[in-house]
């Protein structure tokens, strides 16, 4: 039996509960669970690297950046720009409506917008760094700091449910809604091209399947 105390819980605050509710009603269960796991991975990474909440990053903003990062894949997204940008806009609107200040909103916007931008994310401060790598860890990328027991407890709480394919499918549906959503060399554009050329699994799906956590 998994020990759920091994991994942090989602924040039990009004804004936190609102974010979880929004994600659950906006995206599929596999994508929602991915978002929740990404936050936990980000917190574990911060602990592993000795990064202090309050001093080096805002824990509340990290939660919102991770949990809201895939809103742009939802049917309620406008479908006029790449999903990372639309997700950032939707996350920012959620925070503005709950009284967050401009600096806080902008910080989360940047973290969500850059969550697929390896290399760039590493140089945009702790919030963007942790968001990017917390999300990546859910695909098995750089997750060596997570113990087997922590991984088991986290996946018992939020099951994978073939997450990689569910997420790629949603990104492709979003990208296909407008040319601006699938510019060449972006993640959405790459997924569209891989599906049309290969006709089956994208590189990300294959990487995830072969990773420590599986699909």
Can you describe this structure?
There is one protein chain. This protein is 57% helix and 0% strand. It has 215 residues and is mainly α. It has a single domain (9-161), classed as Hypothetical protein af1432 (Orthogonal Bundle), CATH 1.10.3210. It is globular.
Describe how the helices and strands are arranged.
Elements: H1 14-26, H2 29-48, H3 59-67, H4 83-97, H5 102-113, H6 126-137, H7 148-157, H8 163-175, H9 187-198, H10 203-209
Helix pairs in contact: 1-3, 2-3, 2-6, 2-8, 3-5, 3-6, 4-5, 5-6, 8-9
Question: How many domains, in number, for the residues?
Answer: 1
Describe the main β-sheet briefly. Answer: none
Q: Total number of β-strand segments?
A: 0
Q: Would you tell me the structural class of the helices and strands? A: mainly alpha
Sum up the overall morphology in one term: globular
Instruction: Report the end-to-end length measured between terminal Cα atoms.
Output: 21 Å
Structure annotation, total helices:
10
CATH class: Mainly Alpha
**Low-confidence segments:** none
Indicate the multimeric state.
Answer: single chain
% residues in beta strands: under 5%
| CATH homologous group name | Hypothetical protein af1432
Query: What portion of residues is helical?
Result: 55-70%
- What does the radius of gyration come to? 16 Å
